[in-house]
Amino acid sequence: MKDYKEYIERYFEGMLSEDEELELKLFLASEEAQDPEYDEARAVMGFFSTGCRVYEPTSVRKPEKVRRIVAVAASLALLVTLGVNIYNSNNFCVKMSGDSRITDKEVIMNDVDDILADLMSQGTDVEGQLNDLFGR
Amino acid sequence: MKKYLLVVSLVLLVIAPARAQKGLQTDSLFSKAVPISGYEESLVKGAPLRDYNLSYFRSVRFPADKVILQQVSSWIMKDADIATSKDIQEEDGRLVYALLQFDGDKSKKRYLGYQVRSSGGKDYVTVVYMEGRASVKDLHSFFKKR
User: Fold this and answer.
1) Domains, chain B, ranges and CATH?
2) Cα–Cα distance measured from residue A67 to residue A73, given in angstroms and rounded to the nearest whole number
3) Angstrom distance (rounded) from CA B29 to CA B126
4) Could you report the per-residue pLDDT of A105-125, keeping only the tens digit for each?
5) Nearest partner of B16 among A109, A81, A76, A82, judged by Cα
6) Greatest CA separation for chain B
7) What are phi and psi of A125, to 5 degrees?
8) Are A119 and B136 an interchain contact pair (Cβ–Cβ within 8 Å)?
9) Which residue among B47, B52, B89 sits closest to A116, beta carbon to beta carbon?
10) Complex ipTM value
11) Helix axes A5-12, A18-29, angle to 10 degrees
């Protein structure tokens, strides 16, 4: 059986490597280390393990949650921007006159109204004429 | 992967083709293939046209001499050949008015309008392309009520 007393001494001196420390922990948790001479080492290593879990920097736990929130917010912002662009591309008015570009909705729609009114006034309104003739 | 596909689909929707009148002879006018001075063009889409029950309106207006009148009239008459309904008027052997309707589903009727007006000794041509739910009867009624 390996002599872990040397490991314990080096543990208290801070001289154990990570692998050796893990090996020592496994030993102390096993049935072979039930001798009272290992109680002190077991108590100290157990305390430090618990302390590490309790005082684990919260920043280690948060990134996953923060990343998700940022990803959702970014996706929403992108969708809103695309939605606005789609709305704007589907609803707009513009008039080009020579080198001038007019985007005043009222001006353009007045023009549209005049064009349509003139176009329809010259057209043949068959139903309208029949209504006029037969007084419906 | 799903997010990527969603983004790509939305981007493609944004890049909507602006050539709704493509396929007609008069498309040359709207694409400015014919260089004409004094040319005015209007383009309106969506919400501003709601009152007319239309979804798309594009018009060009310009002063026209005999040559241009002849060219534009010939395009209009070629488009009239494929129209499902037409209202055409001539004066002194020249085309002065046309309102053409083309095949389309109920939610999107397509129209081409042509009109020549004289002012100050000059002829002015207006060509209009429209899409929407409105019928010709609806448009007549709309302007008659006003």
Assistant:
1) 2-139 (3.30.2030)
2) 10
3) 11
4) 999 999 999 999 999 988 876
5) A82
6) 66
7) -95, 90
8) no
9) B52
10) 0.81
11) 120
